[in-house]
Amino acid sequence: MSVPEREFAPGDGPAAKVSVSLRAGNIRAVRERVGARGFSAYVDAAVERQIERDLLEEALQANETACGPIPQELRDEAAELFRSVKSAPELQEEGGWRAHEAS
Question: Which domain of life is it from (predicted)?
Answer without folding.
Answer: Bacteria
